[in-house]
């Protein structure tokens, strides 16, 4: 049996008082359901979201927050054109990238300037 059996969650750092923006971006725009944080962790702030495959995306508060410009999560979508249209509706800027063509992907930033990637898969 393999020592590591998969990926459970990823955490994105955010500044204090990020919860309203996190819910608008990851909940409303990306349409991810919010999860209840365990009470012992809820006092720290942040928000957790569920991904369709059962994994989780955690937004965690860090006191010395600096946006991540290189390291990033790559999220999958089934229809990149629909994603780009939804981004425009929510006034979220996306940048198409063609370096891995025929793979289709875009880059964007969360409300705090962290880099995100969305790949059509």
From TrEMBL:
PROSITE patterns for this protein: VOC (PS51819)
Membrane-spanning ranges: none
Gene3D superfamilies to which the protein is assigned, alphabetical: 2,3-Dihydroxybiphenyl 1,2-Dioxygenase, domain 1
InterPro entries assigned: Glyas_Bleomycin-R_OHBP_Dase, VOC_core
Domain VOC: 6-121
Top-level taxon in the UniProt lineage: Bacteria
Stated name of the protein: Glyoxalase
Source organism: Deinococcus rubellus
